[in-house]
Amino acid sequence: MYCDVCTVPEWNASGTVLRVVDLDLDVVRLRNGAAYIKDEDEFAEHQVSYTYPSWVSAKARQTCAWSMEAARRDGDGVEPFASVHRYWLGLINQTEPGSRA
């Protein structure tokens, strides 16, 4: 499992541009069940250099905490880690190399 923590994606008024800011924090769960937060050092540096508002930093940390808990429980009924991902993985598994399915 690899969760990229970012701002909430927003479409522009015409619906042609999607804007999102990657906040560097990533929650990773390995096949053996170990979970960790990646790139906390970059997040700390960018908080200062890009002057993230305190609410952005707080929400990013809250999202990490929620994702870490879900990762530790191996989903345990918490979406999108319980079953929703199976649909998307199924699409990947059905796709032939070089096709556009």
Task: Please tell me about this protein's structure.
40% of the residues lie in helices and 21% in strands. The chain has helices at residues 40-49, 54-72, 84-94; strands at residues 2-6, 10-11, 18-19, 22-29, 35-38. It starts with a strand and ends in a 7-residue tail after the last helix. With 101 residues, the protein is an alpha+beta fold. The protein is built from three helices and five strands. It has a three-stranded antiparallel β-sheet.
Q: What is the makeup of the main sheet?
A: 3 strands, antiparallel
| Percentage beta strand | 15-25%
Strand order of the largest sheet: 1-4-5
Span between N and C termini?
Answer: 23 Å
| Average pLDDT | 84
The number of helical elements comes to 3
Give me a quick take on this structure.
With 101 residues, this protein is an alpha+beta fold.
